[in-house]
Amino acid sequence: MTFDAVLLDSHTFLWFDSSPNQLSPSAIALIRDPNVTVYVSSLTAWELGIKHASGKLPAAQGLLADFHGTLSRYGFLELQFSVSDALRAAQLPNTHKDPFDRGLSAQALERGLALVSVDPILDSFGVTRVW
User: Fold this and answer.
1) Share of the chain above pLDDT 70, in %
2) I want to staple 102 with a disulfide (CB 3.0 to 4.6 A). Which of 75, 89, 97, 113 is the partner?
3) Per residue in 72-96, pLDDT tens?
4) Is the dihedral of CA 62, 27, 83, 126 positive or negative?
């Protein structure tokens, strides 16, 4: 399957930056494909920031210190979370309650993007998930 554009789940963005060996070979190939536009959501900055501040995610420190620089270095584009995204997230099935996963899934659905994520529970939202 080929994709023109994808959205990275928060863990995917963090792992790509700090420990790419945690990504599947197909995820790495897709993210590195020069013909694929790669988006990172503003929700990812929020999620990683919250988890880092609570001490749960010390590995995110460097990425958070220069978030926009990291996006630029990899050629990734920032995707803002909109009111339409919020409304779509609220309409998703209650199969998974994590607000960040719901928001990222809604963004992918609203824009017709594949979501690069290891998390199979996101499939319940009807997203095209690749890993």
Assistant:
1) 100
2) 89
3) 999 999 999 999 999 999 999 999 8
4) negative
Contact 107, 85 (CB under 8 A): yes
> Total domain count for the chain?
1
Q: How far apart are CA 52 and CA 37, in angstroms?
A: 27
**Angle at 73 (CA atoms; ends 79, 17), nearest 5 degrees:** 80
Rg of the Cα trace of the chain? 14
Q: What share of the chain is helix, strand, coil (3-state, %, to 5)?
A: 60, 15, 30
Domain of 48 in residue numbering reads as 5-130
Query: What is the C-alpha separation between 21 and 99, in angstroms, rounded?
Result: 27
Q: What is the pLDDT of residues 2-36, one digit of tens each?
A: 899 999 999 999 999 999 999 999 999 999 999 99
| CATH number of the CATH domain containing 102 | 3.40.50.1010
This prediction has a pTM of 0.95
